[in-house]
Amino acid sequence: MASLFEQYEQAASISTGPVTSIQSLPELTTAGFINARLEEETPIFKKQRINFSPTDAITHLTVSNNQLVLAMKNKCLLRINLLQPDQPDEIELLRSLGEKNSSVRIYQMFLDLSGKHLLVSFVSTDTQGPFDNFYLWKGSRKVQQASKMKGQVISAVAWNFENTNESTTGSILLGTTKGLIFETELACQDEQHFFQKSPEQYWKQLFEICNGSSQQTAITGLEFHKMSSSFAGDNKYFIMVTTASRLYQFLGSVPSNVECPVLQHVFNNYPEVPDRFLEIPGQLGYSKLQLFYPQPGTLPETFGWMTEPGVYYGTIDTTGQAGHDSVTVDTQLIHYPEVKGNLPKNPISFVLTKFHTLVLYPDRLKALCVLNEQLVFEDVFTEMYGSMVGITKDPMKDTIWAFSEMAVYRYRITKEERYVWEVYLDKEEYELAKHYCKNDPQKLDKVLSKQADDYYSKKRFKESATLYAQTHKSFEEVSLKFLQVADDDALKLFLKKKMEGLKSQDKAQTTMIIMWLLEIYLNQLGCLRNAERQNTDQYKSIQAIFHSLLEQPRVKECVGQNCGAIYNLIASHGDEENLIHFTVLMKDYERVIQYHLQNNNFQAALDVLTKQSRSELFYQFSPVLMQSIPKKTVDAWISLGHKLNPAKLIPALVQYDNSKDPKQGSEAIRYLEFCINELQNRDQAIHNYLLALYARLQKDKLMDYLILQGQEESMVSYDLKYALRLCSEVEENEACVHIYTTMGLYEEAVDLALKFDVQLAKRNADRPEDNEELRKKLWLKIAKHVVKEENDIKKAMEFLQECDLIKIEDILPFFPDFVTIDHFKDAICSSLDEYNTHIDSLKDEMEEATQSAGEIRTEIQTFRNKHTLVKAQEKCSACFFPVMTRAFYLFPCQHMFHMDCLIAEVITHLITTKRHRVEEIQRQLVAMTGRDDATSLSSVSGIPGVSAKEKLKMELDDLIASECLYCGDIMIRSVDAPFIDPEEYTEAMQGWE
Q: Is 227 helix (H, G, I), strand (E, B) or coil?
């Protein structure tokens, strides 16, 4: 449990931040956010006293890289590793001081960035006494006297931020109470030169600071850093030096291969104390310089210089913006808060953070915001542990340590930047304010709202509109603002941005904003049209923006769901161009085409129809277009080719009025010809309609079409019956004859042809080539017509030469009785000569047949007496065993086979029915073995005395022994058969392996 003193100390810590830490009730803000903090907010700076009781009063404390060193009045050093605070290392300096112990005191302690190198400067209580300095390395418990520094009181040290060797400090700068600046390098014993007793590797005075007189001035602050240089061979440095009342800056370049002392080249640019310095007069007699580093090892970002009037604060700029001899910009003097009563007024020390400076007084700590000089935190210390001595900061870990004579305190910083956004907001630095809002929507809304109000007051309406759209300010309030100033462009911008911020489920708000936007654009375009400025760049620009707005996915979806309202809105403004554009955008082509047709703008309607991809609209509007612009309509159909169904365009094709415009029918024919010739369309309706158009409008093409279609009934594409009826109606007899012939109605074709063209009848009479009887009948019709109708006997007689099927006797009945024989004399004589020639030919054939029959009988008799000899050693040609062992067959070619071997070989080459018959005969022969079946089959076979067994053997002989297996057709048919059966190929190959 904390003691009463500690409880009092905690209660004395006062946070004066700009925002109250707790709210009693949830607050509904104008931004639409609820501020509901349910617990007290952690203060930015929180003090914690370290559980530590020193053996004597603390005089100095320094800390770096979690290494803390404090000095006590009894001249003891306590070295503590903060990662292991329970194992402190105490070092006594009494032995090192020797006899001077009682007459000296510690003036200042300096710890390097790594926390490994400590420099302690002593000063004599007697001003005439000697001044000593000691060096202590972390790995040693024995201090070394820096003999080269003897006689100098070190008041400031500039450590080397570029040094990476933990055994040495690298080149560093030392400032003394006499205003002298030295450069040296400290090293531990392991790194010192042979026979070297002092830790200084070298020692060189570089410069002397004085106040314009011979009076010496103590250096209170010293820092140096390497900057980026535009020259590859040079390193550029800046050095900051402070005294009690002045701030000096030194800038210069140092060659990269320079020997020690390194920074001598910088000071060589200043042979005397520079005339340009900053002076802040005061009677304090001391000051302190602090730099803030955003990250360890980087260049400092800001600096602070504690003086009597206040803390001089600014930004470090190494880009050259501050000039050739300065690195400080945006400087200001932060005044200390007013101190009332008898409280101490002069600060002891201070430290610098990113946004605050913590100023230490003997009895309290005050935190000032460097952005607005506001006091944000005040911590009062109890007198229980004595007066405060100092405050320091770990440059590597950013921890803050304050100490009194008997206590050590640690300050934790929690969300230091939490109120910075408000500070920047008050200063109207909006971008920085947004940055430090840390994506907090409530804070960001306040920043954007104030920035928008600011821009609006400055009449920067478009910029304010963009910002208003990002806030939660009342939509109606903002809209009225822009309506009052009559700035449509700003209002449009606000509505667009507001729409972009809406969610997909905010359907009503989105629809309302889009309708309002469309109304504004249409109103602007209408005003320009009324002023006859529709050809200006302004009109075209607004028109293009309006079209792009409609094409945005979100807008397009919304207007697609409210097409009726949009049509009415555009129509109310009389904006024909945008109405058409909108219908095209919505792919409402039907409405666009209807609009053009109502205005007799047929070409525009056809253009829209061609650009869209819905074929149904072609079928719907083509009838009207075909009546008005038939050629261009047909051109459009042809360009689409297979994309259109010609059958569905027939209603448009039948709309032609040839009396009004002869081109309509011709264009219909042109499209149908394209479908048939190019698209290879075989639709019967297309062909029938083309046939009808030919018959009515272009009869000269009718026969060409019918001939092209051919006379194969199954191949023609038109309806034969419809075509016949149509051609009959228009009296196209030649076409009718062609169609009759195609239908196979040759008699009707010849009968019709005889009415107007005998030659056509003759050509059709020869059509049935495979039916001589019909051909003869048709030719007789023609002959009868010629004889009876034309009464031309000579022409009728010529038929006897044109058709070989008609004889003189066939046509004689057609002649009248009064015709004399003289007309037929030649024909009768010619016919008798043909008969005599034919009789002579038959006699010759009969004699030749009689002679052939006699020769055949002689050969049969000779073959019956033919025989051959079979020796006992002859072998079967199939199995190669002696052939005499069982029944065999002998062929004239001298091949012989056992009966069973021949059956086995031949049966595989027989067709299925014969193979089954052979098997059946074999079974019957086996069944008859051992019994004598001498039943006569003369009544069945016609051969008397032949038994059933003999008959079966004769049938078997006919099936298997009709030819030699190796010399007959079987061998010829099996020439392409493989030697090895495919099913046995694998087994055969394995046998060869």
A: strand
DSSP character string of 3-69: -HHHHHHHHHEEE--SS-S--SS-EE-TTS-EE---SPPPPSEEEEE-S---SS-EEEEEEETTEEE
| Residue 586: how many other CB atoms lie within 10 Å | 17
Tens digits of residue pLDDT in 617-654? 888 888 888 888 888 888 888 888 888 888 888 888 88
The answer to whether 169 touches 192, Cβ cutoff 8 Å, is no
User: Percentage of the chain surpassing pLDDT 70?
Assistant: 85
Length of the chain: 993
Tell me which DSSP letter residue 801 carries. Answer: H
3-state secondary structure 896-916: EEEHHHHHHHHHHHCCHHHHH
Tokens read off for 454 = 């600011």
In which order are the strands placed within the sheet that holds 58-64? Answer: 58-64, 67-72, 76-81, 89-92
Q: Which of 240, 243, 183, 245 lies closest to 219, judged by CA?
A: 243
Query: How is 472-517 classified by DSSP, letter by letter?
Result: -S-HHHHHHHHHHTT-HHHHHHHHHHHHHHS-TT-HHHHHHHHHHH
The side-by-side arrangement of strands in the sheet containing 104-111 is: 104-111, 117-124, 133-137, 144-145
* Structure-block tokens of residue 85: 């605070």
- What secondary structure letter does DSSP report for 237? E
Q: For residue 285, give both structure tokens.
A: 């007699």
Q: Which residues pair with 311 in a beta bridge?
A: 306, 334
Closest CA to 615 of 651, 583, 589, 579: 589
Angle at 717 between CA 712 and CA 719, to 5 degrees: 95
> What does the pLDDT average to over 771-777?
74
C-alpha dist (Å) from residue 414 to 13, 39, 432, 561, 694: 15, 16, 20, 53, 98
What is the C-alpha separation between 954 and 952, in angstroms, rounded?
5
| Residue 979 or residue 922, greater confidence | 922
pLDDT computed for residue 945 by the predictor: 55
pLDDT digits (tens, 9 = 90+) for 21-53: 323 333 333 345 545 454 457 888 999 999 888
Other CB atoms within 10 Å distance of the CB of residue 177: 20
Question: Is the per-residue pLDDT at 677 higher than 80?
Answer: yes
Tally Cβ neighbours within 10 Å of residue 92. Answer: 13
Q: Which residue has the tokens 């240089």?
A: 229
DSSP secondary structure string for all residues of 588-631: -HHHHHHHHHHTT-HHHHHHHHHHS--HHHHHHHHHHHHHH-HH
What is the pLDDT at residue 322? 81
8 A C-beta contact, residue 213 and residue 237:
no
For helices 441-457 and 461-468, angle between their N-to-C axes, nearest 10 degrees = 160
Chain mean pLDDT for the chain: 83
Give pLDDT, residue 643: 87
For 157, list phi and psi in degrees, rounded to 5: -135, 130
pLDDT of residue 937: 40
Residue written as token pair 């001089």: 312
* Global pTM value: 0.60
Biggest distance spanned by C-alpha atoms of the chain: 186
By the 8 A CB rule, do 874 and 884 touch? yes
HEC-encoded secondary structure of 101-133: HHHEEEEEEEECCCCCEEEEEEEECCCCCCCCE
Q: Mind listing the pLDDT tens digit for each residue in 478-525?
A: 989 888 888 888 888 888 888 888 888 888 888 898 889 888 888 888
Bond from prior residue into 281 cis (ω within 30 degrees of 0): no
Contacts (Cβ under 8 Å, ≥6 apart) of 211: 217, 243, 245, 246
